[in-house]
Amino acid sequence: MSELWTLIKYLFFGIFQGFTEPIPISSSGHLMIVRHFMEMDDVGISFEGFVNFGSLIAVLIIYRKDLYRLSVNSLQYVIQRGEENRGDFRFVLLLVVATVPAGMIGVLFKDVIEGIFSEDIRMIGTTLIVTGFALWIIRNLRGKKQDGDLTLKDALIVGFAQAVALMPGISRSGATIVAAMLLGMKQDTALRFSFLLYIPVSMGTMIFSVTDLMEDPHFESLVIPYIFAFIGSIVASYFALLWFMDIMRKGNLKYFALYCLVVGILVLLFL
């Protein structure tokens, strides 16, 4: 019976992480809250990196056409210097530039940031409120910038916004989309840039998590629950991202803003 409960618990954890990862409510903050209530202190960063890879697979599936086009056209531009492919090549370069801030800050300060927030879960309440206010500010924005209009400055600002989201409670998708919308990007451009930017950061997290996963004392005994959580993360992330894309098109970000504000206040009041 205990083995069944363990399997259900980890499956729930994977589905929960997968569902909250693409939408702007901070998966890391919510996972810390859930772990607090479910007493899952044995779940380490290796497991979170493992299920995060499930979210990455979902993003790759949904944006597969964009990834194929950008890859092929960028390669053709490098080989043939065809001007018709220059825009896609430049878009890829901007994604690379935007990856740098979070990569550098993550390598240097990620452990420090996680240590601070793990000591006081009430800090999650504060950062969720910040996320809520940020989403409320952009709830009615409708930008005009498309892929070809983005600048180096835009990429750096969105990249630093992603770095800020290393703090649990600050949503990664929320932070990057807020920055993109404030810079005047159209909704579909903001979404695409945000989630294509998620790919290299998530891959970096996965690479760093491999060693932790192999050294995780729980991995061998929990390999089946880990796999169920991984599959649950893929499925949940896939449908959550499609749902979020539909909400962005309809301009209903205010609901996420209100949700983050309410949860943040409840955390401050009761935890």
Automatic annotation (TrEMBL):
Its main location: membrane. The keyword Cell membrane applies. It is a multi-pass membrane protein. InterPro entries: UppP. It is found in: Cell membrane. It holds the Pfam family BacA. It catalyses: di-trans,octa-cis-undecaprenyl diphosphate + H2O = di-trans,octa-cis-undecaprenyl phosphate + phosphate + H(+). Keywords: Antibiotic resistance, Cell membrane, Cell shape, Cell wall biogenesis/degradation, Hydrolase, Membrane, Peptidoglycan synthesis, Transmembrane, Transmembrane helix. GO terms for biological process: cell wall organization; peptidoglycan biosynthetic process; regulation of cell shape; response to antibiotic. PANTHER family: UNDECAPRENYL-DIPHOSPHATASE. Bacitracin is thought to be involved in the inhibition of peptidoglycan synthesis by sequestering undecaprenyl diphosphate, thereby reducing the pool of lipid carrier available. Catalyzes the dephosphorylation of undecaprenyl diphosphate (UPP). Confers resistance to bacitracin. This is Undecaprenyl-diphosphatase.
